[in-house]
Specification:
This protein has 305 residues and is α/β, with parallel strands linked by helices. The chain has 2 domains: 122 residues, ATPase, nucleotide binding domain (Nucleotidyltransferase, domain 5, 2-Layer Sandwich); 146 residues, Nucleotidyltransferase, domain 5. Helices cover 32% and strands 22% of the residues. The strands form 4 sheets. A 5-stranded mixed β-sheet has the order 3-2-1-4-7, sandwiched between helices. A 5-stranded mixed β-sheet has the order 10-9-8-13-14, sandwiched between helices. A hairpin with a 4-residue loop joins strand 5 and strand 6. Helix 1 packs across helix 2 and helix 6 packs across helix 7. The longest helix has 25 residues. The two termini are 22 Å apart.
């Protein structure tokens, strides 16, 4: 069994995972305020991990969104609207010193990498040698996997393996494809039914299903842009699967067709992840083998994925 953490913008989950059977056997989930102060955020994570009651001396895996120095375990959140108070903090040391029973080490990986690895091991990308994983939430996460190894360079791989660094209409992709971009676009048309502080992407999806043309147009434009931008990379990478996760993927009846339209004649159709919240947990567990070493190799000269 491997002990793992998955830290998101609204929650933290600690779990025990069997990486061989790719099965989550026990979990503790707690709400997390990503806009709180560092003491509150890290205190919540430490308490959640401690509730799992893992024997001392274990190596934990932790799936964490960027910007984060996953090699050193240091937070680099700045200008992304979450976890800002953690900037510069050695999260690895906080967890090792704070979690009881005490871990031997904590190994970090990007949450989109963990999602894609989990889906490759036991979900929607199982059986595919090359796959692309996309997570849609507050931003756009991505992973390009070849035989279980995250690639950060090479044919068909965007800079650093990051789709969010690509551009659309002269601006970074996340200016069009992200929670904040979609909400801003939707609210840009003034009217009694548009905008509002309580509107989220899921509400826009509901309105699109109910026939509101503006809601459908906003979602279609954003997600088709994503498909168009990644299409040449999917082709050049030789991916046979594109797996999508994150909060927006829950509205797959709207998300899937829009991304598929953007992919055009690319011979791969997007598919939703099948493991739900377990994907990142399983991916984090598989990332660390029984001896605390990486299960996924480091790409040559690139550091940890």
């Amino acid at each position: 069994m491997r002990a793992v953490l998955e830290i998101g913008g609204t929650h933290v989950t600690a779990a025990l995972v069997d990486p061989l059977r790719t099965r989550v056997s026990r979990r503790v989930r707690r709400p997390l305020d990503a806009w709180g102060n560092a003491e509150h955020i890290l205190g919540t994570v430490v308490r959640c991990a401690g509730e799992l009651q893992v024997p001392a001396g274990q190596v934990w895996g932790a799936a964490v969104p960027g910007p984060f120095d996953h090699e050193k375990g240091i937070a680099r959140f700045k200008g992304v609207g979450k976890f800002e108070d953690l900037y510069g903090i050695d999260v690895r040391s906080v967890l090792i010193d704070g979690v009881r029973p005490r871990p031997a080490d904590v190994v970090f990986l990007n949450d989109a990498h963990a999602f894609t690895l989990g889906e490759w091991c036991a979900g929607a990308a199982a059986g595919h040698r090359r796959c692309v994983g996309i997570t849609l939430g507050s931003g756009v996460g991505s992973a390009f996997l070849a035989d279980g190894v995250v690639r950060r360079a090479g044919p068909g791989v965007p800079p650093e393996g990051r789709v969010d660094l690509l551009r659309w209409s002269g601006a970074p992709l996340e200016h069009s494809v992200s929670r904040r971009a979609i909400l801003a676009r939707y609210g840009s048309r003034r009217g009694s039914r548009h905008g509002g502080h309580d509107v989220d992407v899921r509400d826009i999806a509901v309105r699109a299903r109910e026939g509101e043309k503006w809601a459908g147009q906003v979602l279609d434009e954003a997600l088709a842009a994503l498909g168009t931008v990644i299409a040449p990379y999917v082709r050049d990478f030789g991916a046979s699967a594109v797996v999508v996760g994150g909060a927006m993927a829950l509205s797959w009846d709207l998300v899937g067709p829009a991304i598929g339209a953007g992919l055009g004649d690319t011979p791969v159709r997007p598919r939703p992840g099948t493991l739900g919240a377990d994907a990142a947990l399983i991916g984090a567990a598989v990332y660390v083998d029984a001896d605390g070493r990486r299960a996924v190799r480091r790409s040559p000269g690139r550091g940890h994925t």
